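S2.1 Query sequence (tRNA(Ile)-lysidine synthase)
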Amino acid sequence: MGGDPGDGRPVSREEFARALAALGGFEPAPAIAIGVSGGGDSVALVLLLRHWVAEWGGSLLALTVDHGLRPESADEAAAVGQAMARLGVSHRILRWDGAKPSSGIQAAARAARHRLLGAACAEAGILHLALAHHRDDQAETVLLRLARGSGIDGLAGMAPVRADGAVRVIRPLLRFSHDRLLATCRAEGVDWIEDPSNRNPRFARARLRAARESLGGEGLDAGRLSEVARRAGRARAALEQVTAALLAEAATVHPEGWIALAPAPLRAAPPEIALRALGAALAAVGGPAHPVRDEALERLLDGLAEGQGGTLGGCVVRMRRGAVMVAREPVAVTERPTVAPGEAIRWDGRFDLRVSSSHRRPVTVAALGADGWREWAGRQAPKGVPDLPVPVRETLPSLWTGADLLGVPMIGMCYGFDADGQHPVDRARFCPLSSLGRPAFTVVSDRDGII
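Output structure tokens follow.
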């Protein structure tokens, strides 16, 4: 991800093939989806991948998200579909429905886009989702994070390869400049659509683009900032590998959706590694929607050393029976979806849940709560009540019809048995989006491939 000395030239098929080879991990005849906005960057990625999959006998699916934020967005998405049809590339439009937030709109739109793209890939059975972020995007990301006081992780920028649930997100264009991608479109005689938000000074990235010339004059050009990202990424990867080793020693993941950390390995580890391990546990239990700042994490770790706990990242953290308990914070669990018989959902970002088809009507999935726990425990023989921390009890997924408790799939049912009358058919499984065992940050170097 260093310099791009060929600024102004189209990206050749050979260069692109080397960039994909550095990412690795493709099956024979790979099926790849692309997030396509219609801008020059994503159109160039379509053109390059169209040739690559043809050589490998694979397939390509272009996905466009219509965020519905501007009146003309539906027509623009349809125009992208027409452009893809002219290129012989299959295309789908994904719509972000529902109410939109009044603030933080770009972050919300980004989260919705990732969710819709991932779901479309899973539905189509596609393992690889290609995004068109390029060298200039990486430079802007590093600058934004530097302005926000980010540490090593933030300065590492965007990862060339990232696991996102069942989908593998790849960014094969991070070593190429925006100018070269536009040149690639021109070389094949293909037009693109300019996104007006790219020039809107309301947004930080647009302001950075406007300041790019003066920053470059001070040496902060895209090539230099991309080198910062590569070196920070190399350090991040090393730190994450050491953190994974600490978690393998210290962490116990419980199926009810909580984690216990042995304090001795945490105390023995360097502070940076202990902080990362605690942060990983918070992300797994609280979910990626609750990012924590370094200062808050440092305060929490210092408090634990003195026997004090706290709440952070949607979690309750405190000492329990000689271990650090990381459990979901009850007041943070607010989802109450209505689920049809036989339907599967992801609940609270942590549990994969399937409702029994034997229910006669839709049920509500909600946190069990203190009253629900008392009701459920009162129905059980004393030896059948598990010894769980209070926050864990209250945040278990439970099934309701109105005020009537139907069951608690994690620990036993009151309703919904299969044909032999022995096994509950409502199912819930702790499956956090942010796994403790996720791969370390990936760094791609022009010289060495993946580091």
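The two ends are 12 Å apart (CA to CA). DSSP finds 15 helices and 21 strands in the chain.
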